Amino acid sequence: MAGPLENKNVVLGVTGSIACYKAVDLASKLVQAGALVDVVMTYGATQFIAPLTFRAITHRNVVTNAFDINSESAIEHVSLAHRADIVVIAPATVHCIAKLAGGLADDALTTTVIATLAPLLIAPAMDANMYDHPATQENLEKLRQRGVVIAGPAQGRLASGLMGMGRLLETPELLGHISATLGRKGDLAGRTVVVSAGGTMEAIDPVRVITNHSSGKMGYALAEAARDRGANVVLVTAASGLAEPAMVKVVPVRSAEEMCDAVLERVQSADALIMAAAVADYRPSIQADQKIKKSEDDLSIALTKTTDILQAAKGNFVRVGFSAESQDLVKNAKVKVQSKDLDLIVANDITDPDSGFGRDTNKVALIGRDLQVEELPVLSKYEVSNRVLDRVLTLFRS
Ligand SMILES: Cc1cc2nc3c(=O)[nH]c(=O)nc-3n(C[C@H](O)[C@H](O)[C@H](O)COP(=O)(O)O)c2cc1C
Hints:
14 helices; Rossmann fold
């Protein structure tokens, strides 16, 4: 299965904000992800960025004038509006937001928005006082009520040099919002999926931990793929250093015990639990209050077994486990399906160079209750996620 943006018609509206330069990166990343990007610029936007920049990046005409006699289509805004799978306005100025809230259509962009039935996503960018202004807040609320997705803004350093709310979201976050919005009526719409990710950390003392090499990338890919098919996703994560996926409920944890508590709390109202996290099997029996000093040549740390989260999580939901093995992959995974009473196990051989920790690809085998083995080729973790979710969907339906 291709990525969520492959062959999607994205109309990218760009308005007159200082953050216009970031829209160039967004357009580029959309094109790289396989989207067909038609840029519509307001007059204000053309004062910041030359249309030629977008023309060169998208390889398509850029619309700047609703009344362009040389336009390819006689009624450009209507043909764009009909073709669009999504209209994204990034950055969206206060002025543009006000016009949209009022239903105005005095330029190519606002006319396209009024003429489309595609979902509309806007990413505001402005100075903090402009964002906080009651008029802006009322206008944003009006748009939200109409089903418009408002992505951001973020808190941070603004062009004025002040700190505050008003920063345009960064490109990866915008891409996440766009993918999620495109997929919101997907085959997992209405389902809640709890995913765990990352390697847990078990404290030895205030300084040291026992952990493992799990990066969390597989769990994050699962969370994004489920989101992009319309699911409500809760991501219980012990990973560090990965960007939070947009439009996913993220629950950060550290230890196996914290992960267990967080999963058990959230899974009761879920349709599926996918445990992609590498949860410690053992934790130090005692966590020292103070840093353990170096003295003896040898140091022994007594360990206690942690709770097996998949075994503890019982209820009316689909249960999927992951099995990372360095030997006897299929044999060990089959034992786990039965001993943990799982609906599906995803077995990956961590010794395979294309698989496992920290990589963007994975080579896995899927094994269900019938113990039939479905070997998948090397795929991106996002594609592996979709294959897992296909099986989860079949389990929902059965
Ligand atoms: C240097 C400069 C930076 C601006 N940055 C922003 C901004 O970040 N957000 C905003 O809402 N307006 C900003 N404005 C004001 C808008 O450009 C102005 O309201 C304009 O009418 C917007 O028109 P448009 O929405 O049709 O592009 C800026 C203006 C200037 C001169």
